Amino acid sequence: MTLTRDIIIYAVVIIFGVILATHLNVVVSGSMEPVFYRGDIVAIEPANFFGIQEFNTSDLNVGDIVVYNATWYPAPVIHRVIFKGTNPQGQLYYIIKGDNNPTADPDPVYPNQIEAKVITYGGNPGQNPIVIPDIGYITIWIRGIPQSD
Q1: Which residue has the higher pLDDT, 119 or 5?
Q2: What pLDDT shows up at residue 10?
Q3: Quick check: 30 and 149 in contact, CB under 8 A?
Q4: Which of 79, 99, 148, 149 is catalytic?
Q5: Is 105 a catalytic residue?
Q6: Does the annotation mark 107 as catalytic?
Q7: CB 126 within 8 A of CB 63
Q8: Which CATH superfamily groups domain 2-143?
């Protein structure tokens, strides 16, 4: 009986760890300062969590902070939506920018590029993100991610 109980406990811990890990993202640059900093961990809501759609990537608002697959950078980028529009072909797109960057990101971002949205509290899009300061430096150090600012 104790072996079965131990297996159940381990399974619950593993499942909880997977859920937690897929809902956290390490910030690797200073492009969103002062909202969050390199080494911070932000809570995210994945667009697709093992086949479960947690939010519709077409329903983002100006001000939302998203994680997306950039065409201009080899890793996911965490920046803010500053414009929502439709191109001449009728496709929805977003213009996205890091708060600490002087210009918007170089290419429009389409809903299929959005991986996650940063979780916030207080009711205003993109305001008051849930942040765990500095803990992400462990991941940055292990992965050997250089400063990119």
Answers
A1: 119
A2: 73
A3: yes
A4: 79
A5: yes
A6: no
A7: yes
A8: Umud Fragment, subunit A (2.10.109.10)
